[in-house]
């Protein structure tokens, strides 16, 4: 069995991984880490959940350790990620290993007061993890410089292309030294991503794990034909009341907010996640979902590749995605790291043809369940068998972030007329006057 030490990582990093219960590298880690350590440009292709963060992050840290000191506002390594959530999670994964080597990692993302980032950059930073927009804002203000960057990583490059970030990414890459090492990781390597590779990587070593389709083949896929919208909504409510971590996807921000209100009215502790939410709200949602205190996350596609949370046992497409790539990346939130997972799509009558084509293009085989003819589709035994659906029975919950009824301050107890006193009055009356 290959170990992280066999790959050439420093013992201090190996010990940190062992303390976290990580001893055996994933295939893409075994393949790519030695090349990154050797200073080569690397092009990594693999599905989300295949261990890419440590694939680029650990050898980046190893290459920086003991090779000089960083200056304020001049990081020596740069990691670009498409979403705030992904950038934050990369930072969280690398912070402890970096500290072990005496290195400092900093994340700068949109939605956070930029003055906070400016103050943080006033101290030496070894590895900067950033979303493209916030990095450019800091550069424009003269608070960030990329001239000392030795290693640059682009993570989820295909999502950056889908979100229209590649012009910003190109602009940032041109600010890094042309002789620097470049690493690019993506689930797919076509179109604009391939142009980016040709422009900025130098004879990259290509490492490819199983394609996205193969990764989702290990999951259980199900289509539930539910009939009309009211039936779909009731089915979604029952599924959300299950035990375990569940991510439910909607196409629009408004749909997410409306769905969360429905679930919380039924006593289900669901939180929303979409682009209009402030960074504080997004962080609370992810942290609660990660520690299990928030069992249900309702999200737009912003979360399809921006969340890496363990033990997500079910992904539900309340709104089927617009295209097959989105299906694959939504589905990739479950069955991570070799764990089991289930993916369910709720299909109304008018969506059957569209979803059939989507599933075919995604390259997966889904089991079909037609529960639309039942008087109560939400009570179908097969729905409970596949998802663990059950009838919600908790009290209604206030909007996320507000105090729950049991934590709210109790109103002052009313006193009887005989107990009431005017200000300044005594508790006992004087007699004899």
Question: Could you name the key traits of this structure?
Answer:
alpha/beta; 16 helices; 433 residues; 7-stranded parallel sheet
Write the SSE topology.
Blueprint: H1 11-19, H2 27-37, E1 42-45, H3 52-64, E2 77-80, H4 84-100, E3 105-108, H5 114-121, E4 127-130, H6 132-140, E5 151-154, H7 157-162, H8 166-174, E6 181-186, H9 192-200, E7 205-208, H10 212-217, E8 220-227, H11 229-240, E9 245-249, H12 253-265, E10 270-273, H13 279-291, E11 296-299, E12 312-317, H14 324-331, E13 342-348, H15 352-362, E14 367-370, H16 381-387
Parallel strand pairs: 1-6, 1-7, 2-4, 2-5, 3-4, 5-6, 8-13, 8-14, 9-11, 9-12, 10-11, 12-13
* Helix share bin: 25-40%
Share of β-strand residues: 15-25%
The residue-averaged pLDDT reads 86
- Main sheet overview: 7 strands, parallel
Helix and strand composition category: alpha/beta
How many helices in DSSP terms?
Answer: 16
Q: What's the total number of strands? A: 14
The global form is globular
Q: What is the radius of gyration? A: 26 Å
Taking strands numbered 1, 2, ... along the chain, how are they ordered across the largest sheet? 3-4-2-5-6-1-7
SSE run: HHEHEHEHEHEHHEHEHEHEHEHEEHEHEH
pLDDT < 50 runs, ≥5 residues:
404-433
The N- and C-terminal alpha carbons lie at a distance of 98 Å
